[in-house]
Amino acid sequence: MQELRQQVKAGFKKQGDLVFYSHVLPFQYSNFIDGMAWIGVLAKACEIAGDEEIRGLAWNHVRLLEYYQVRNIAPIKPRNSWIEVDEGLYGHPKEQSLAGPFAAMYCGVVKENESAIRQANWLVRLAPLYAFFVRFGPMKQHLNTVMFAHLLLGKKPPKRMAWVCEDNMIYSYIYGKQCEANYPNTGPWPAKDIPFSREEKAQKYTPVCDLAGRYLQGIK
Fold first, then answer.
1. Helices then strands (H, E): number in the chain?
2. With contact defined as beta carbons under 8 Å apart, do 27 and 74 qualify?
3. Cα–Cα distance for residue pair 124/26, rounded to 1 Å
4. Which of 42, 92, 181, 189 has the fewest CB atoms in 10 Å of its CB?
5. What residues pair up with 60 in beta bridges, in sequence order?
6. Which one, of 130, 187, 123, 126, lies nearest residue 151 by Cα?
7. Which band of pLDDT confidence, cut at 50, 70 and 90, is reported for residue 137?
8. With contact defined as beta carbons under 8 Å apart, do 48 and 18 qualify?
9. What is the 8-class DSSP label of residue 199?
10. Is 51 helix (H, G, I), strand (E, B) or coil?
11. What's the Cα-to-Cα distance from 192 to each of 12, 22, 188, 189, rounded to whole Å?
């Protein structure tokens, strides 16, 4: 567990009051865009587990993304599409999807607001219909957003979608089920790579999903 924790810690870089994140190890600045969603859940999981060091890194990184309204941030310009958001500070300007703001509210970086809660409620209401299509085609790409809506509201997803819990600590937590498993190294947030049929990558991803899942499940 300590080795896992150190790997996650290595994914963060602190520069004064600023905290940057790399979705791959060793640390690098890249065009990664889902930090608010993944690191927001990690921040809350660390709060639940009492890991204040990692929670502080995660929380402050999400706060930085929220403050500058960017998908990623760095003290260098990884891509020409990035914009300067402050002196010597660059951000990915793409608008956040719903999963990011849901996670930012879940971890307390952003106060719950009426618009986001209304969107989360709509997703929860549509979940029984969505459950018919999630196994197939492009609908699967929205699975994490639907699950995060339930996580934010403290709701249990539909029973017909419970197959997503298999070997999946985070989705099992949302369903209120116990689970201890290892996520494959298939991407920066392998909880959404279901069923786990994708090949593991040679590139090492920062295992935030594993640490968040264990902390949510009460495993230390």
1. 8, 7
2. no
3. 38
4. 181
5. none
6. 123
7. low
8. no
9. P
10. coil
11. 22, 19, 10, 6
| Tokens 């197939």 -> residue | 136
Cis previous bond, 101, omega within 30: no
Please give the model's pTM, rounded to 2 decimal places.
0.95
DSSP-derived 3-state class of residue 68? helix
Six token digits for residue 37:
């969603």
The answer to whether the Cα torsion of 159, 175, 165, 138 is positive or negative is positive
| Cα diameter, the chain | 50
Question: Quick one: pLDDT at residue 210?
Answer: 98
Spell out the residues 6+ positions from residue 83 whose beta carbon is closer than 8 angstroms to its own.
90, 91, 93
Q: Cα 149 to the chain's mean position, in Å?
A: 13
Q: Mean pLDDT throughout 167-171?
A: 96
- Residue 153 near residue 120, CB atoms below 8 Å: yes
Is the separation of the CB atoms in 152 and 105 below 8 Å?
A: yes
CB 73 within 8 A of CB 89: yes
